[in-house]
Amino acid sequence: MDIYNFGKELIVKAGQFVETRMTNEFKVDSKSNPNDLVTDVDKETEQFLYTEIQEKFPDHRIIGEEGHGENITDTKGVIWIVDPIDGTLNFVHQGENFAISIGVFIDGEPYCGLIYDCMKRDLYHAKYKQGAFLNDQPLAHAKNEPLSKSLIATNPKRILREATKNSFFNIMAASRSVRSYGSAALEFAMLAKGQIAALLFIKLHPWDYTGGQIITGELGYKTTDIHGNELPLLGTTSVISGNPEIHLDILEFFKNDKTLHDFHDDFHNL
Predict the structure, then answer these.
(1) For this chain's UniProt record, which GO biological process terms are given (predicted)?
(2) Rounded to whole angstroms, how far apart are CA atoms 147 and 134?
(3) What phi, psi does 80 have (nearest 5°)?
(4) Which residues of the chain are in CATH 3.40.190.80 domains?
(5) Edge to edge, what strands does the sheet with 122-127 contain?
(6) Taking a C-beta distance cutoff of 8 angstroms, is the pair 264, 226 a contact?
(7) Binding site annotation covers 96?
């Protein structure tokens, strides 16, 4: 079985593991701050994914949100970038609106992207240059809609700082409206379905965006940081993703915002 088909089966099995596990009690802890939650289920699901991948492909490397691969400093070979539960706050408070996200890269180049909406049991998947799908149905190519006629998604708590709010507020004001769903992976899934036209984040990790970036890239969506640069596979970054027209519109809002650019580069140690 090739990596892509193995990945599709694996992410569904991991989703089934989460569904079963969440019926029992689990412990909730905080990481960097009281709102940055992690549960036993996050850790156990990452370990489940790690074990399954290593048993099938012992020479592959895994980077996970909950600690696997934290010493990886290069992109050689096959790397799986895994978020066992993207949207842990939603998982804890709502019991839904969370996803498992996987991006697979070979020598730093995209190979496949997978997002599994656990409670809807929907699998978004794409193999590089072979189209993107929701379960077995092909997803439609991106439509060029202007910002003024579009819903966009962002994390409002991240953009309330003095250094970030001006450009972000102007973008939100210019859009039709703004949504926040609490899971970057699901927001990439919504972008792939055309339910939103763009998403903006001042800080994401590779496990938040690599699966979604590969899937939406197959549909003609453009994803960069606020400078218009390609996203890294290691380290944090800002993320802008949308149809080509909106992507350019949003970059224009950031173009001359030196305060934001300086904050961004310092924030991400660029």
Answers:
(1) inositol metabolic process; signal transduction
(2) 25
(3) -100, 125
(4) 147-268
(5) 61-64, 78-86, 99-106, 109-117, 122-127, 132-134, 137-138
(6) yes
(7) no
Inform me whether the pLDDT recorded for 35 exceeds 60.
Answer: no
pLDDT, tens digit, 9 for 90 and up, residues 43-65: 889 899 999 999 999 999 999 88
CATH, domain 3-138, list 3.30.420.40, 3.30.10.10, 3.30.540.10, 3.40.190.10 = 3.30.540.10
Tell whether 115 is in a known binding site. Answer: no
SS3 assignment for 51-112: HHHHHHCCCCEEEECCCCCCCCCCCCCEEEEEEEEECHHHHHHCCCCCEEEEEEEECCEEEE
pLDDT of residue 230: 95
| CATH 3.30.540.10 domain span(s) along the chain | 3-138
Of 117 and 92, more confident:
117
Annotated binding-site residue? 83:
yes
Tokens of residue 198, six digits: 């763009």
pLDDT at 226 over 90: yes
For the domain covering 147-268, report its CATH number.
3.40.190.80
- Cα 182 to Cα 138: distance, rounded to the nearest angstrom: 26
| Beta carbons of 79 and 233 less than 8 angstroms apart | yes
Backbone dihedral region for residue 228 (phi beyond 0: left; psi -120 to 50: alpha; all else: beta): left
86 is in an annotated binding site: yes
* Exposure of 247 in the CB half-sphere (CA atoms within 13 A): 21
